[in-house]
């Protein structure tokens, strides 16, 4: 794949062309967007530039609320992520929170091999915690598959964390319909895969977590 180098002027010109083409294709598109934002989905994904959330699921602006960070981490001390979740759940009334990781994630790779990558090392310590939690099993996964195995384990753990946030717990306690999911995206084939962590109530969380964990471990054990 050849990399195209764009200038900032190219980006602005691209934007003008996109806006004109969008308005021509759907007259009134932007005026409708101005009036309302009613997404049904909150996507919590990795900041990787190869994983463009809206495009992967073919949704228009206004249909997907998005939060991204390195290695799609959800931790209870991250006020940025929690604020996005709270706004999405309490005000936008999203019905689904989808934590999405991806294969060959650089942040996960750095966490797996204790790479020295600068300030972000402090952030991916959360992924190192996941690695340590499953270290004995990971050591038995073939080397070439270990990064992707940890990518999937990380999704399962971060989706579970999302379930345990006060935002989601409070929504469930008041009877609001919110379902948390864990997915992984394959950079090699462009496909999303449901990791079977699907929880729509506090009682669902641990059974869903155990099921998803078992599925990941079974798949990589079989592949090995």
Structure report:
This protein has 2 domains: 1-35; 37-223, Beta-carbonic Anhydrase, Chain A. With 224 residues, the chain is of the alpha/beta class. The protein has 11 helices and 5 strands, in the order ααβαβαβααααααββα. It has helices at 8-25, 29-35, 53-56, 79-91, 106-113, 120-123, 125-133, 135-138, 143-163, 166-173, 205-223; strands spanning 41-46, 64-69, 96-102, 179-185, 192-199. α5 packs across α7 (125-133) and α9 packs antiparallel against α11 (205-223).
Strand order of the largest sheet: 2-1-3-4-5
Total helix count? Answer: 11
Morphology: globular
Provide the residue-averaged pLDDT.
94
Catalogue the unreliable spans.
none
Major sheet size, sense and barrel closure: 5 strands, mixed
CATH architecture of the largest domain: 3-Layer(aba) Sandwich
Structural class: alpha/beta
Structural domains: how many: 2
Summarize the structure.
This protein has helices at 8-25, 29-35, 53-56, 79-91, 106-113, 120-123, 125-133, 135-138, 143-163, 166-173, 205-223; strands at 41-46, 64-69, 96-102, 179-185, 192-199.
């Amino acid at each position: 794949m050849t990399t195209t180098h764009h200038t900032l002027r190219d980006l602005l010109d691209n934007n003008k062309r996109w806006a004109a083409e969008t308005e021509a294709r759907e007259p009134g598109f932007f005026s409708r967007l101005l009036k309302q934002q009613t997404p049904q989905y909150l996507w919590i994904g990795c900041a990787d530039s190869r994983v463009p959330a809206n495009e992967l699921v073919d949704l228009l602006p206004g249909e997907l609320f998005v939060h991204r960070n390195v290695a799609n981490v959800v931790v209870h001390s991250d006020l940025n992520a929690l604020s996005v979740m709270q706004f999405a759940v309490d005000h936008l009334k999203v019905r689904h929170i989808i934590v999405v990781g991806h294969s060959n994630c650089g942040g996960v790779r750095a966490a797996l091999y204790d790479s020295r990558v600068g300030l972000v090392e402090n952030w991916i310590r959360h992924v190192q915690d996941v690695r340590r939690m499953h270290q004995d099993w990971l050591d038995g996964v073939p080397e070439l598959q270990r990064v992707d195995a940890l990518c999937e384990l990380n999704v399962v753990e971060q989706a579970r964390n999302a379930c345990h946030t006060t935002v989601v717990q409070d929504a469930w306690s008041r009877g609001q319909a919110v379902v948390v999911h864990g997915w992984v995206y394959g950079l090699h084939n462009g496909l999303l895969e449901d990791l079977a962590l699907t929880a729509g109530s506090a009682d669902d969380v641990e059974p869903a977590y155990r099921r998803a964990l078992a599925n990941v471990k079974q798949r990589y054990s079989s592949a090995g």
